[in-house]
């Protein structure tokens, strides 16, 4: 275990979703930079009218769909992800998200 890092338990009853800078996108931080030097994890809810515009990521990112369906656009293509599906983006890649079936809940895992 890295220095200053400790085991953390996050209970689902304790999650606090807050509005992000994007309309219709709410996030609850599970693991943040104060908890881990290498990983951030967030649970994200996307409402029907939400859209996360194309953006480049500074760290590797995995998106795991928990509920609903989401279109992921990257490299000039679109993929529909359903519950249980995961996509991994290496550092420096770009993508956008649009919920297809809302409400949509995803787990975001940032590493590196």
Order of helices and strands: EEEEEEEE
| Helix percentage range | under 10%
Query: Which fold name fills CATH's third level, the topology?
Result: Jelly Rolls
Shape: globular
Please tell me the total number of domains: 1
Under CATH, the homologous superfamily reads Jelly Rolls
Terminal CA distance reads 16 Å
- The secondary structure category is mainly beta
Largest sheet: 8 strands, antiparallel
In percent, how much strand structure appears in the residues?
over 45%
In terms of quaternary structure, the protein is single chain
Written overview of the protein:
- With 112 residues, the chain is mainly β.
- It has one domain (16-111): Jelly Rolls.
- The chain has no helices and eight strands.
- The chain has strands at 18-19, 25-31, 39-46, 52-56, 60-74, 77-81, 86-89, 94-111.
- Strands 1, 2, 3, 4, 5, 6, 7 and 8 form an eight-stranded antiparallel beta sheet that branches.
- The radius of gyration is 14 Å and the shape is globular.
- The mean pLDDT is 95.
Short description:
The chain contains no helices and 8 strands. It has 112 residues and is an all-beta fold.
Furnish the topology, listing elements before pairings.
Blueprint: E1 18-19, E2 25-31, E3 39-46, E4 52-56, E5 60-74, E6 77-81, E7 86-89, E8 94-111
């Amino acid at each position: 275990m890295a220095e200053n890092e400790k085991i953390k338990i996050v209970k689902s009853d304790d999650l606090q979703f807050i509005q992000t800078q994007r309309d219709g996108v709410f996030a609850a931080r599970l693991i943040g930079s104060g908890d881990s030097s290498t990983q951030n994890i967030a649970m994200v809810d996307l409402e029907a009218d939400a859209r996360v515009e194309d953006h480049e990521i500074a760290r590797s990112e995995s998106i795991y769909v928990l509920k609903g369906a989401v279109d992921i656009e990257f490299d000039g293509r679109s993929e529909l992800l359903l519950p249980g599906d995961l996509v991994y983006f290496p550092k420096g890649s770009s993508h956008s998200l649009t919920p297809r079936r809302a409400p949509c809940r995803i787990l975001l895992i940032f590493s590196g």
